Amino acid sequence: MAKIALFCAIAVMLLFCGVLRAEQGAEAEASRPGLFSGTIADSAWTVVAFVALVAVLGKFAWKPLLAGLNARQSHIEQQLKSAEDSRQRAEKMLEDYRQQGQTTIRQAGEEAQRHHQQTIEQTREEVLALRRRAHEEVESARATAMEELWKQTGEIVLRVGSEVLGRTLTPQDNQRLIDEAVTRIKHDGGL
């Protein structure tokens, strides 16, 4: 198809050149021969030369040129298709990474919430343990204070008893009286 169009274009150019020369005047035509002036043999050789030129150009110039242009066109189309495929893969990867990022953020939020709850529970347990220890220490201090109070009460009773009775008690009597007083006070419900 391209060969026919090229052949027609060349024929039209040659015809146009002949028409221009015919218009230049009769004198110029008489002194110089034109394309269509001459013998049939000259015209035949011109046509043969033209056909040979078209055949040689078709085989050695136009076919490789067209093959190169077609190869370039297919290469460009292939690159465009490859670029479109790459763009689609990139968009898919971007969406996948976006979803992974959202999943990671959601998981991190859940993990932070769990960690927060664990910290609250751990703090609550520590507070309860501190409260228990404080109660135990208070009870221990109270028991120690009561013990000390009973001892001091016993000593006061012993001194008062020594002064009232006017005699000195032995340590065994002293201990016996203290124990009796402590027992009586404990039994009666305290001081």
Describe the structure concisely for a colleague.
This protein has 191 residues and is an all-alpha fold. The chain has 4 helices and no strands.
Question: Could you characterize what this model shows?
Answer:
The structure is a single chain. With 191 residues, the chain is mainly alpha-helical. Among the domains are: 2-83, no CATH class; 143-188. 90% of the residues lie in helices and 0% in strands. It contains 4 helices and no strands. It is rod-shaped and about 180 Å long. The relative contact order is 0.03. The mean pLDDT is 80.
List the helices and strands and how they pair.
Elements: H1 2-23, H2 26-31, H3 40-165, H4 171-188
Helix pairs in contact: 3-4
How would you spell out the order of helices and strands? HHHH
Measure the end-to-end span: 129 Å
Shape: rod-shaped
Structural category is: mainly alpha
Approximate strand percentage: under 5%
Overall pLDDT confidence? 80
**Main sheet summary:** none
Rounded Rg: 62 Å
Features:
single chain; mainly alpha
